[in-house]
Each structure stands twice: as structure tokens, then as C-alpha cells.
Predict the 3D structure of the following.
Amino acid sequence: MSTIFPGYFISFEGIDGAGKSTHIDAFGKLLQDRYPDQEVIMTREPGGTLLGEQLRNLLLESPMDLETEALLMFAARREHLAQVIEPALKAGKIVISDRFTDASFAYQGGGRGLSLTKLNELEFWVQGREKGALLQPNLTILFDLPGSIAEARRSKVRAPDKFEKMDLEFFERVRQEYLRRAKENPKRFHLVDATQTQESIWNGLKDLRINL
Ligand code: TMP
């Protein structure tokens, strides 16, 4: 159960090329089969709403000031929460989001250098609820692997977007910030060693115990 709402909120995270997208749909189907009475909603960030998808196009293609980028990420998130995530959690659904706020800490914070103070303020602004509660995923599945391996995997696929064009040092900083967040929130994070084969990763995901 969500700490605030009756539903259950899961986010998938990792540096570009870590392989989360290979498993996220199958994981959604697995949960839907396991919990047939609870609807599973699949969504993503930046995006998940009409406005959010428009902001996504801008964010992934247009160069912009770092603070503009962070503000637009959180603006898209606010809309996503208001239109999709919160109504679903209130209705007791399971929400699986391909990325959420940890990505802003990792990419805009770790990668591009935005201060943690500003990110914490944005997080509280957008996700803060009554009596100081903060809406967070119940579970965050972090696909972790060295930047060099992710880079080699990325070069085999589609044309890179703005973030995917960044260098190895950038992705190492992004990875370290993800790991710092995971260390800070050990109960919420489940770490996946993404250097494993797809089959071992999937077997691990299948065995993951979720306490709805
Ligand atoms: P995706 O390719 O996994 O859908 O993610 C889109 C890109 O957006 C990815 O490179 C990470 C980046 N991103 C941020 O920089 N900050 C954020 O808050 C989010 C949600 C994504």
C-alpha cells in the first residue's frame, strides 16, 4: 500500500542503456496476472500526459539552461501526478512509471550539477502533501551498471537524444547519484545488477516480493 494512497507506486530507473525498458512491460504484465483485481497502469517520465509528452519532446531535443530543464521536468511531473498517478493511486491501482524524481536527482543533479537544495525544494513543492508527507514510489527498481557498458549498449540502438549524447563522465556521475539515493532509501530501492544476462535479470524480477 502507498503510504498516502491505497494504490501501489513503482518506478524503474537507471542510466540510459541499463536495460530497464527491456523488462518494464513484461513486469507490468506479470503483476497484472498476479493481481487480477488491481488494474496496472504503465506510464513514463518525462511524459505520461498530453502536456508531459510535449514537454518531453522539448526536454529531449532542445538545449536549455539547467534550471529551466529542472523546472520543466518537475512541471511535467506535477501534471503527471495530478492527471494520472494520484487518481490511479487513490483508486487503489498499481502504477508503474518508467522514471520518476530519482532521475531528476541523477541527471539534473549528479549529471549536470544542479544543487541538491534546489532539487529537494522542487521535490517538496511537487510531491509534498498534507502534514509534511512526501509522495514517493513504494518501490524503485534501479538497473545499475558501469557507464562504459551502458555506452556500448546504447551505440547499438537508435539515434541518441540530447541526454544519450552526453559523455562517459556524465553517466558515471548520474550513476553515482542514483546509488547515493539508493543508499539513502534502502527500503524503497531494489538494485538490479544490470551487467547480468537478460534472463537472470528477468528471473530476479519474477522473484521480487511486493507487499501490496
Ligand atoms: P527514457 O529514454 O528512459 O525514457 O528517459 C528520457 C531521458 O530523460 C533520459 O535520458 C533521462 C532523462 N531524464 C532527466 O534528465 N530527468 C528526469 O527527471 C527524467 C524523468 C528523465
Observations:
- Residues 66-90 form the longest helix (25 residues).
- The pocket of thymidine-5'-phosphate is lined by residues 16, 44-46, 60, 73, 98-99, 103-104, 107-108, 163 (CB under 6 Å).
